Every structure is written in C-alpha cells, then in structure tokens.
TrEMBL record, chain A:
Family: Belongs to the SWC4 family.
Protein name: SWR1-complex protein 4
Compositionally biased region (Basic and acidic residues): 1-10, 481-497, 505-515
Source taxon at top rank: Eukaryota
Automatic annotation (TrEMBL), chain B:
One Pfam family matching this protein: Actin
Source species of the chain: Lachnellula hyalina
Polar residues composition bias: residue spans: 1-15
Family label: Belongs to the actin family.
Disordered: annotated segments: 1-24
Source taxon at top rank: Eukaryota
PANTHER family, alphabetized: ACTIN
Protein name as it appears in the record: Actin-related protein
Length: 560, 483
C-alpha cells in the first residue's frame, strides 16, 4: 500500500501532479529499502517520517566534547551557632578541584602535613546559616542589684527570674511567654512557707508580665548606662519601656475583645451603619458638587455689554418698554403663524416669565433671591412680608429716592471703585488682595454688601492717610537734608565740629521721626475709626474670609 | 518564611533508588538559599499510618499502616503487603493508644524501623530480623546484628513528630530509641500540629487536625504551640467509623458489613435487595481483630465515596427561611449508591450527612453502644472556641485568618465549607480564612511535609539535639529543648 492508495481511499486529489518537481527531488536521494521498511516508507508518502538515522559520529561528539563529570562529595560542616557543640552534619557539596600536588621541594614536610590532618577540626567549614542565629538581650542582674533596685511586693525574685528566662527563651513573644508562664513554687525554706501559707501562683495577665518585665528591663538599662549617656535609640527604648501602662493595654484589649465577640446582630448593625455612613458621604459629595457648581455660576464673568444706560430709573423704564415691545412683536408673529388662540394665555404667561428671566440676567450677579422670582402676577397675590423675611430678602424702604434715582445694589459697590483713578483703583485692589478679599463678592447679600462698602471706605481713608504720611515724610527728609547741608557749611566755616551741636541735631531728628510716627499712627487709628462701625468692617472681612475658607476647604475636599 | 516556598524536591526526579542521594538533587537545593540538605529523616507516626521520608522531599517515601499482625506463633508482620492476608490468621494490633500516642514502645520501635529500613535506608544491610523480609526464627541471634541495628540511622539525623499531648515519659523514650537503638547523630522532636502549620506555609496558625484517633484544635504562634489552647476530642476517623456501624445496624433492612476477604463471588442485585454472593470458607480461625480491621477498610471506602458533611447554610437540622428543614431538603435530593463487597447496594440519602453531623453538632451524633454520648465540648466548633479563648485577644483575629486544616478525616466531602460556615457564624466580625491542601496526599501528610520543610532548612541545623548533648544531659534534654 502506498500513499497513493491512501489518497484514493480518502478521495483526496493526487498531490503528485501539483508539485512534481519537489517530489522528484525528495525521492531521488531516498535509499532503496527492502521489506517492511519499504512498506512503511511508502505509507509516509511525500513527507518522510522523521526518523533520525543512527549515525555513530553523533555519539562520539557527545561524549568527546564533554568536560569530566563534576565530582560531588558529602562534605562535613559544623554550626557555630550551636554554642560549641561539635555536631558535624554532612551535605553534598561540589568537590573542590585540588591544585596539582605541590612538588616535593627542599622540605618534604609539606606533603607530610597534608597527610596527617586531612580533616582537622578547623577545616570543617561552618554552616552558612550560623549567622542568622540572633537572640534578644534580656536584662541581667545580680542578687544585690535585685534587692537594691528591683524589689516589688507583687513579685518574688523567683518569679521574676522565671519571667526573664522565658523572655529570653521565647525571644519576647508575649503570647507564648504568657502561655508558658508557670513560676516555680517557692522553695520550702522561704519565708512564706515558714508562715505556713504556700500561696498558689498568681494568675497573671499578659499585661502584668509585660509591666514587670519592662520595669525590670528599664531599671537595669538605666543602671548600666544613665539615660543621659544613651544614644537616641537606646533612650527611646528606655522611654517606651518605662512608660508602659498596663491599664491602657488592658482597656484596649477589653475593647478588642468586645469587638471580637460581637454577635451576628451587632455585626450586621455595624455593617448597616457603615453603609449608612457611606451613603451620607456620597450624598455630601453630591451636595458639595452642586454647591461648587452654584459658586462657579456665581463667579461667572459679568456680561460685557454696557449696562450703564440701564442703571438709572429712566434707563430701566426704557428697557421695560423695549422688552414689552419685543414680546408683543413676537406674540403677533406667533399668532400669524397659526397658533391656536386657546394656547394664548399660557403662552403669554411663559413669555412673561421669560421676560423676567431676561431682565434677571441683565441685572447680573448682584441679583439676590428676590429678583429670581418674576414680578408678582397681580396685586391681590402680593404677600405682606414679615420683618424677618424683609431682612432675609434684603428689602429696604426709602422715604425718597436719592438724586440719582433708583440704583442697583452692585452699583453701590462698584461705584467707589469706578469713580477712582486707575492708580487709586490698583492701590485699593492691592489692599484687598492683602486682606484676601476677592474684589468680586462671592455672596453679595445686603449685609455683606454694606460691610464691603464700609471696608472700601476705610481703605480709602487708609490710602489717603498713607499718602499724607508719605508726603510729610518726604518733606521732613528734605528739610533735614537742607538743615544738614546748612550745618555742614556752618561747621566748615567754624573749622572742627562741636559735639553739642551734633547731639542737638540728633535730638531734633529723633523728634521729627516721632512726629512722623505719630502722624502715621493717627492715620491708622483714624482709618480704623473711619468706617461707620469698626466691628462691622471686621465682620465683613471675617465673612469674606470665612467664605473663602469655606470655599477652600470645599475645594480641598473635592480634590481628595 | 522559608516554609512558604515550594519544596525543592518537587522539581527533582523521583527515580533514584531511595538511599542514593544524587548530587543532582542537592544541586537544586543549593540554588535555594534557605535549604541545606543533611539527609535527615522525618518520621511522622500516627494512629492509622506511619509516614517516613527524607527531608526536602514533597511526600514521604515510606507510608506504612500502623496496624501490624501477630501470628499464632507470636511473629510480627508489618506493612500493608502482609497484614491483609486472611490465611495467616493474624491478630491485628496497633502500638498507638486511642489518643494517638505510643502505648507499646517495643512494637512501635519495630514498626518505625520497618517503615524506615524498608524504603529509605535499605541500601545498607539492615537488621535481618526487622526488615520484614525474614522469619526471625530462622536467623540465629548474633552479636554483630545488634551493631547492625545500631547503624540503622547512623548517618541520618532524625526529626520525629508527636502530638501536643504527648507525655514526658514518651518523649524521653523517643530520644532514647533514636540515640540508643538507631544511633542517630542528631534528633529533634516536633509537634505535629506545628509541622502541619509549616506544611500549610504558616508559622502562626490555628491548626485543626482530624485524623483517625483524635481530632485536635491547637493555636500556634511563631512555630510554638500555645499549651493552654490545646483541645482534643475523639471525633475523628475511628469515631466516624463507629457512627457508620451504628447507622448500618439501624437501617431497615440492616446493612451487612462484610469485608472483602469473605466474598468468593457476587452477582449484581437491585438496590435494597438481599445480597447474592458465595462466601469463602477458611480453614484457620479468623481473629475478630482481623475482621474488624478489614471491615474498617470497607468503612473507609464508604467514607471516601458516600459520606458528606452538610455544607449549606446552618446545620443539618436548621429550618431555613422557607420553613423547610435542611434535613427535609436533603431528603428531597438524590442520594448516593454504595455497593458492599457482597454486592448488596443501597441508596444513602440524608443518612450520609447525618453520620458526620456529630463532628459539628453533638445532638446529631448517633448513639454508639458502650460509649458515652458526645458532649458539646467535643465538637469541632466548640474546640475552636475553647482554643481561641485561651490565647491573647490580639492573636485571635490573626489565627482565624490562618486556619490550617489537616488529617485524613477532613477529606470528607464538604468538611472545609462547613467549617468555614461554622466559624463565620461564630465570629461574624472576624475574617475567616481556611487553608486546606487540595491534594489528598498533602492533606493526609500535612505534618510530615512540614517536618520535611523544617528538616531541610539551613537555619534548623543549630537546633538538633546532638548525640553529645544527649550523652551529656540524658533523656530529659528533650524536655528542655523541644518546647
Ligand atoms: N477520603 C477520605 N474521606 C474520609 N476519611 C478519610 C479519607 N481518607 C482517609 N480517611 C480517614 O482518615 C483517617 C486517617 O487520617 P490520618 O492519616 O490523618 O490519621 P493519623 O495521623 O494516622 O491518625 P492520628 O492523627 O489520629 O494519629 C482514617 O480514619 C481514614 O479512615
Ligand atoms: Mg495525625
């Protein structure tokens, strides 16, 4: 059976025709085989079976090119961490290649020595793990030291010894020390048994053991090396040990125990409380987000259009007219476009509302809550505001409107600034920056506005005073210079300087200085008093800064 | 901790003849910075089996049944190959007590020697009387033989495991045998619970070991058992076997526990139908102990294939939210069929869960004739509670997060799930994490594997009790050193 027969059976096209050239190439070097081998080869068809022929050359190479096998030996080693115990264990190690034997030189001892001590004690290598053997240092004390320093009515020396021994043995693993703490019974000739009472060993808590051990350790540490001479690590350790408070530890453990022994219900309750907390936090996040958005909106840049013309009552009237006309026009436009008359009134209402919103947007950021609501629909529905509400909404009643007519409140704030020269304006701005007050109020309520106004006044006064002071300063300086020059001239005329004069001159300058100071001080005082009410100003500053603080903290919270 | 790293031998070819330590293996070990192989032997004897092997390997090479046979002539037979022969008329005994500690030292020594020499050190000529290959009566006593015996472990340090409740006398006897009879250069006695923790890769852990004779719950801190936390009870493999016997006796019709050696041939029968088998007749008397031992094998088969622990919510008798008790729910589910050696077969429904329920709920335990009823304190959850209550509070959450489960009986289906449910119900505030080896062998050999890890640690070699120390301080050196 050949591969062609297989193809026949499986209905495969004869591949021989597709690549005749290759086939020829492949078949050409094939050795002529006989019997079963040929049958097998025929089965494989065009893809010869991957049988690697046995070639003796390979074998030779494999073994010829190899280095000699690495030699291993069971090498003895000892462990220096075993406190001098001579236990020698054996592990497999690579045999060290011995350098060629030293030639027999002038003294033949070399060979001798090697033969005599093949495995001398020193030649047994040490375990590489011996270095990991570290032990804690526990306090050591003599009988006298104990009696002098470490006496404790709650602890016998026997118990203390036992405790310190355990601390060493278990490397200060307290749970284990407590577990294994079984102090030896006092010897029969000790004082207790003479009195006829052999007390059963006290049941001690981990805290008791720790407290005793730390006090012993701290005492002995200070004994060996006075605290002043300790390095910082030692000192810290000493501090920690001598300040160990078992009561606090016990309380903490009690708390931990209670937490650990919570019932299912308590655990569930705690879980639900945690969930609630999470929800509250999430909600407050949302709230903060909203608040932030609100502030962002309040801080939006004012409309750039010139609104100066609307600031007077006449201007407002004009604006109203304009808007009315615009809405009317639109209404008629709508009507002509075939809106059913039934929809009229509601449509109108909505327009009116929109009008009011337009007005609102024009009135700008200074508009407070009351402005948000459109004009009341009718006089019948007008509500009488209580005094508190009036205060909240910032309603104020005026006998008569001032010469300039009705004005927006924000005008009041920006006016003192606008009216000033640009130099003055920057100066005011600088002061505001110094006070950390934004030159645009964040929450311009009536009170804040008033406070801000008075603050601005104060700043003005301050600036005036400073200007005056500077001017005086300058004049004084000038006068002094002139005077000095004159004196110099006079001295030159007289020859050498007379001391008394100098002193007098000094006094004079002193006086002048103090005058200048007093002037400056006065101006400051005045500027403080300058506002209508001193405390109000500070209140406004406070409110402004507190607002800012709030915002800052909010931002902080948002950022984190 | 080095214990968490894989055993080096897992990448080592297992072909080499037992005692021949190929340098190849050591080479691999050398790449591992914490191990240092000194060809120590780890011996982990238990009630059901003795495990022995070289440190650094991942399974014990030698695994020998703890039961041994005594012929009428008083000849001892060790190992599974020989003790299951009914023709020998062997009386089956166990050198271990019901508490899993050595009771019969003479035989235990022979058994362990057999375990070591038959697989590990047979390369050297061992004592022909004890290698299990010869009939001692045929060998003349010889002075030389004693010396042969002494060299059993002449080159191998021996690390042996013991239970946490082993007696001082027993411990001293162990070192005496290692030093005097076997000539070990060094010896160490380790607690099997600590070794199981190491085997699970933990130094601090709550070890729950449910073997054949005893179940124990022990808290381990930094590789040291906390003695006050040791809890043990008989609810283990043998107890479960007794439960099964009680169950078989109480079913209708009675399930007939016939061991394999009794059956010559059987014909298949329908479920619940009486068995149709021809029984074998033996000329010699079959001792009861042999029959019980062979029955035990059938019971272990039953445990492996049918028994399950209820691992849903609550306990087996808890009534769930729909007003249906878990028992009723299990009854509504398909059961499992078990065919006894005589061909009788039966569907086991809720019974396959109720036999094991006593591990967790003492009220669900079936009464065992001539045995006191199970107490609450003997159940596994209660042992955990007691064990944890005896350790420092700061340690408890940590222990619950590192629970290591080991021992053959923990292999019952659903055991770890149930344990997890019970522990989370008991300590709802703590995070419970159970570490249980997935492989059967690793679960059963947990303590041996831990010993294998410890025995190959380079830092451990400073711990060994050397021959010199033994000679200097005597047998009680073991009490001083192996804490
Ligand atoms: N797959 C299994 N399912 C259930 N039980 C099993 C399974 N495999 C083994 N066992 C049981 O486990 C027990 C043996 O466990 P293990 O080898 O841990 O005990 P041991 O260490 O020898 O005994 P002990 O710890 O009591 O001294 C036997 O009772 C056996 O019936
Ligand atoms: Mg065990």
């Amino acid at each position: 059976m050949s591969s062609n027969d297989v193809r026949d059976m499986l209905d495969l096209p004869d591949s021989g025709s597709t690549r005749p050239a290759k086939k020829q190439k492949l078949t050409a070097p094939r050795p002529v085989l006989k019997g079963l081998a040929r049958e097998i080869q025929n089965l494989s068809g065009d893809n010869p079976i991957a049988i690697v022929p046995e070639v003796s050359a390979f074998k030779k190479k494999r073994y010829g090119s190899r280095k000699p096998v690495a030699k291993w030996e069971q090498k003895p080693f000892k462990n220096s961490a075993r406190d001098g115990d001579p236990l020698v264990l054996r592990h497999w190690r690579r045999k060290e290649e011995k350098p060629p034997a030293p030639p027999v030189g002038e003294d033949g001892n070399v060979e001798m020595e090697e033969a005599v001590a093949p495995i001398a004690e020193e030649m047994v290598e040490d375990s590489t793990f011996a270095k990991y053997n570290v032990r804690v240092n526990v306090p050591e004390y003599t009988e006298e030291e104990y009696n002098a320093k470490l006496q404790n009515q709650d602890w016998t020396k026997l118990e203390t010894d036992h405790l310190v021994g355990l601390a060493y043995e278990y490397d200060l693993r307290w749970p284990v020390i407590w577990d294994r703490y079984e102090p030896p019974l006092p010897a029969p000739d000790s004082a207790d048994s003479l009195l006829g009472l052999v007390l059963p060993p006290k049941i001690r808590t981990v805290e008791d053991l720790k407290a005793r051990y730390y006090s012993v350790a701290a005492t002995m540490m200070a004994e060996r090396k006075p605290p002043i001479k300790m390095n910082s690590a030692e000192f810290n350790l000493h501090e920690v040990m001598s300040n160990f408070n078992p009561a606090i530890e016990t309380a903490r453990k009690k708390f931990a125990e209670a937490a650990f022994q919570r019932t299912k219900e308590e655990a569930r309750e705690e879980e639900s409380l945690l969930l609630e907390l999470k929800r509250i936090l999430a909600r407050s996040d949302k709230l903060n987000e909203e608040r932030r958005e609100l502030y962002a909106r309040l801080e939006a840049p004012p409309s750039t259009g010139n609104i100066g013309i609307y600031s007077s009552s006449q201007g407002l009237q004009q604006l109203l007219q304009q808007l009315m006309q615009a809405s009317k026009k639109r209404k008629s436009l709508m009507g002509s476009e075939g809106i059913s008359p039934a929809a009229g009134p509601s449509q109108q209402a909505s327009f009116e509302r929109r009008d009011s919103s337009v007005r609102e947007s024009i009135s700008g950021p200074s508009g407070s809550n009351n402005n948000k609501k459109g004009p009341p629909p009718g006089p019948s529905e007008r509500r009488q505001l209580t005094e508190e509400e009036e205060k909240i909404y910032g309603v104020s009643h005026h006998e008569r409107i001032g010469a300039s007519g009705a004005a927006f409140r924000h005008e009041k704030i920006s006016k003192p600034l606008i009216s000033k020269s640009s130099v003055q304006q920057t100066k005011i701005a600088n002061v505001l920056v110094e006070l950390e007050i934004p030159n645009r109020l964040i929450m311009p309520t009536v009170e804040v506005g008033e406070a801000y106004e008075s603050l601005l006044q104060s700043i003005n006064t301050l600036l005036d005073a400073r200007k005056l002071a500077d001017k005086l300063d300058g004049e004084i300086k000038l006068a002094r210079q002139q005077k000095e020059e004159r004196e110099k001239a006079a001295r030159l005329e007289r020859g050498e300087a007379v001391e008394g004069d100098e002193v007098e001159g000094n006094n004079k300058t002193e006086k002048e200085k103090s005058v200048a100071r007093s002037v400056r001080g006065g101006s400051v005082a005045r500027s403080v008093r300058g506002g209508s009410q001193g405390h109000k100003r500070s209140a406004s500053v406070l409110s402004a800064t507190s607002e800012q603080n709030f915002q800052r903290s909010k931002e902080y919270r948002l950022r984190h | 901790m080095a214990a968490s790293q894989p055993l080096t031998s897992s990448i080592q070819p297992t072909d080499a003849s037992p005692p021949c330590h190929t340098p190849r293996r050591i080479n691999i070990a050398n790449h591992c910075p914490t191990t240092d192989e000194v060809s120590a032997i780890i011996l982990d004897p238990g009630y059901s089996s003795v495990r022995a092997g070289f440190a650094g390997e991942d399974t014990p090479k030698s695994f020998v049944n703890s039961h041994y046979g005594v012929s009428d002539a008083g000849k001892f037979t060790f190992g599974d190959d020989a003790i299951h022969n009914p023709l020998a008329g062997l009386d089956i005994r166990n050198p271990m007590s019901k508490e899993g500690i050595v009771e019969d030292w003479d035989t235990a020594t022979q058994l362990w020697e057999y375990a070591i020499t038959s697989r590990l050190t047979s390369f050297k000529q061992s004592d022909p009387r004890t290698n299990g290959l010869n009939d001692p009566s045929e060998i003349a006593m010889d002075v030389e033989e004693v010396e042969e015996g002494e060299r059993t472990l002449g080159e191998h340090p021996l690390l042996m495991t013991e239970t946490a409740w082993n007696t001082t006398k027993n411990r001293e006897k162990a070192i005496e045998i290692a030093m005097e009879s076997w000539g070990c250069p060094a010896f160490w006695l380790a607690r099997n619970s600590v070794m199981a923790a190491f085997g699970g890769g933990k130094a601090t852990s709550l070890v729950i070991d449910v073997g054949a004779s005893t179940a124990s719950v022990i808290s381990i801190h930094d590789g040291l058992i906390l003695k006050k936390s040791v809890q043990k009870s008989p609810v283990a493999g043998n107890w479960l076997s007794s439960q099964l016997r009680s169950l078989f006796a109480s079913t209708e019709p009675k399930a007939n526990l016939v061991p394999h050696f009794d059956i010559a041939s059987k014909t298949p029968v329908d479920a619940g139908a009486p068995a149709q088998a021809t029984y074998r007749k033996y000329e010699n008397k079959i001792p009861d102990s042999f029959r019980a031992f062979e029955e035990e094998r059938v019971l272990t088969e039953f445990k492996e294939s049918v028994v399950q622990v209820w691992n849903g919510m609550g306990r087996l008798n808890t009534v769930n939210a729909n007003g249906v008790s878990n028992t009723d729910y299990v009854k509504s589910q398909p059961g499992r069929v078990f065919e006894f050696p005589d061909g009788a077969n039966q569907m086991w429904g809720v019974e396959r869960m109720s036999v094991a329920e006593g591990l967790f709920d003492e009220r669900a335990a079936l009464p065992i004739p001539n045995e006191p009823a199970l107490t609450k304190a003997q159940t596994i959850p209660e042992m955990v509670r007691q064990s944890l209550a005896a350790v420092d509070i700061d340690l408890r959450p940590h222990l619950l997060g590192n629970v290591v489960v080991t021992g053959g009986t923990t292999l019952i289906n659903g055991f770890t799930d149930r344990l997890h449910n019970e522990l989370t119900a008991m300590y709802p505030g703590a995070r419970v994490k159970i570490q249980a080896a997935g492989l059967t062998a690793e679960r059963r050999f947990g303590s041996w594997i831990g010993g294998s890890i410890l025995g190959s640690l380079g830092t451990f070699h400073q711990m060994w009790i050397s021959r010199k120390e033994y000679e200097e301080f005597g047998v009680n050196v073991v009490e001083k050193r192996c804490k």
